[in-house]
Write a structure and sequence with these properties.
- This protein has helices at about 25-40, 55-65, 70-75, 80-95, 110-115, 140-150, 155-165, 190-195, 210-225, 235-240, 270-275, 290-295, and strands at about 5-10, 130-135, 170, 225-230, 255-260, 285.
- By secondary structure, it is of the alpha/beta class.
- Helix 6 (about 140-150) crosses helix 7 (about 155-165).
- Strand 4, helix 10 and strand 5 (about 255-260) form a beta-alpha-beta unit.
- The protein folds into two domains: about 5-20 and about 100-295; about 25-95, no CATH class.
């Protein structure tokens, strides 16, 4: 059981162990998909998209030859392509929601399950854990839901309601479909589901829903004794909206930031400079290791 008040802050790097691509790889897969559409002269473009192949060619060429490290960054600059871009991101990521990948690629999720496990299901709510994620995929929701369902022999509905009451999960940028109504790994209704994800520049900070989501995320983060930050890129807008990281942060603050071996298009020196703004120190708060390896070699943020 997690007794110390803990908040997980997740970015794209938090689910790479399950095969979900980071920005550069997602960009490559988008380009490959568009190239296939172009080579087939538009015959494989989903009719519901209602986009001519000439527009796809323009999107393809502009993304291929521009110097943006991720589809999100590109679409922020060229929002006229977001309908097709979001469709392709949703399609690609939905195909990565594969249940059998949990057989050998459960990664740090297994550490999380071990940490929250209790003897009796009634005790699950005693875990002091909240989860804030920028990810569209539902792998964290799925893993925790299925653990509760099968470990404690509950129905799917009972397990989901129990999990929701015990461990709040906020998806700040939307998801690939409302889980569990849209099953994990579902490949249907991609266009409709793509409308529910939001890239950074689409976030409307004036809406009540957005205000409430970020306010709740900020409350979880600022109210936690321990914050584990996995795979988060520290984008300026996202950091500002969270209202948690502060310049010249005190070193004693209990933060664990796992980047992975690389951090998007930034090299380690650039990331060091970026982190120093927030008072975060290498090998004290920040680790250039995949999330899973932080547990074995450095620290377990789920242990009091």
């Amino acid at each position: 059981m997690i007794t110390k008040k803990t908040c997980l802050l997740l970015g794209a790097g938090a689910s790479t162990h399950l095969g979900f691509p980071l920005g550069a790889e997602l960009k490559r897969q988008l380009l490959t998909a568009m190239d296939d559409w172009i080579q087939k002269k538009g015959s494989s473009i989903p009719p519901k998209l209602e986009v001519p192949v000439e527009d796809v060619k323009t999107f393809y060429e502009e993304m291929l030859h521009s110097n943006f490290s991720s589809p999100d960054a590109f679409l922020e600059k060229f929002p006229e392509h977001k309908r097709v871009g979001k469709y392709l991101m949703c399609e690609i990521l939905s195909k990565k929601e594969i249940e059998r990948n949990f057989i050998s690629q459960a990664g740090w999720y297994q550490h999380l399950v071990n940490a929250i496990q209790v003897d009796k299901i009634e005790q699950l709510v005693e875990n002091n854990l909240s989860i804030v994620t920028f990810n569209y995929d539902r792998s964290i929701d799925f893993k925790l839901h299925k653990f509760v369902q099968h470990h404690y022999r509950l129905s799917s509905d009972e397990a989901w309601q129990t999990l929701r009451a015990a461990i709040p999960i906020i998806h700040l940028h939307g998801t690939l479909g409302e889980y569990p109504e849209v099953p994990y790994g579902c490949k249907d209704d991609i266009l409709e589901r793509s409308n529910s994800i939001q890239i950074v520049h689409e976030i409307d900070e004036s809406t009540e829903q957005t205000k409430e989501n970020y306010a709740q995320a900020s409350r979880f983060l600022n109210g936690a004794e321990t914050v584990a930050v996995f795979g988060f890129g520290f984008g300026a807008d996202n950091v500002r909206r969270l209202n948690f990281f502060k310049e010249q942060e005190k070193e004693e603050r209990d933060l664990c930031v796992a980047f992975g071996r690389t951090s998007g298009s930034l090299n380690q020196q650039e990331v060091n400079a970026k982190m120093s703004k927030w008072g975060l120190k290498l090998n004290k708060h920040c680790y250039y290791q995949p999330c899973n390896e932080v547990f074995g070699h450095y620290r377990n943020p789920f242990v009091s």
